[in-house]
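Ticket 4471: requesting a sanity check on a complex prediction with 2-oxoglutaric acid. Repro inputs:
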Amino acid sequence: MRIIQPDWDFAEKAERLRNSVPQTDHARQILDYDFRLRAMDGSVVALLLRDVIPAKLHRRAFRSWYSRVNSHVTNRPEVLGTVSMSKSTCRDGAPSGFKGVNDEILNSTPAGTALQETLGCSSKGIITPMTEKHPDMLEDNRELIELLDWQFKKHLPQFREKALTEIKKAPKQCRLLKTAFTSIYLLKSWSSRYHKDSNNLRGVLTALTPFGDFDGGELVLPRWAIAIALKPGDLLFFDPQQVHGNLLFKGKRISAAFYCARRVADAPGLN
Ligand SMILES: O=C(O)CCC(=O)C(=O)O
Ligand SMILES: [Fe+2]
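Returned structure tokens:
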């Protein structure tokens, strides 16, 4: 495992790039080997484990999730690279009170190809309707979820402990199996524009892995000018509060982000 600790830091440039399309020349290096990336202050911001998910498990996840992820991305304008505005127009022509991704943008730009779903706990701390309707989407992938948690414990125990402390304060149903995750966010058919994630517990890394059959889609962290070549079977832990986005890809691709939801300890619940 290589330790990378760049002595450059383009934090301001990364902020400016939010909402825009990631470009190859924002990265000095494409990393396709196991590494641990440390910021200048020594904190771990990313860790890549190549080829740690057996094909049987990532192919099963692809089969179980791909066809079921079909909701338009109406709540993440930064990921789509669009502006946040009134979602739609009322019959009298006035803008509706709901902010997010505008219907017309979804219908008339490539942003309409982006589809999403969350399994487990939502940002409000309740089990999502998709999870209630199709519990097999989690049950069939138990081995995968447990494997990711095991890798989390093995390589980044301090982050996992932080998530667990929060999860233990939350209602039992928020916890995915007995792991340190509450939620799995699935993004299909879209290369995210530069953004930060918003629903994760701050100070804890997210586990990201892509499924499918595709070329491209590397994850760029412009702050350190690196692109991470993620393929099915690879597992990336990274700080989603650092600006990130994907290079374009060709083919069928869905990504899964396993994380601990931000306000899970405040979730309404019975226990
Ligand atoms: O698809 C990916 O590789 C990353 C997706 C992402 O960052 C997100 O959905 O927040
Ligand atoms: Fe993200």
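Notes from triage: The chain has a mean pLDDT of 92. Leaving this open until the requester confirms.
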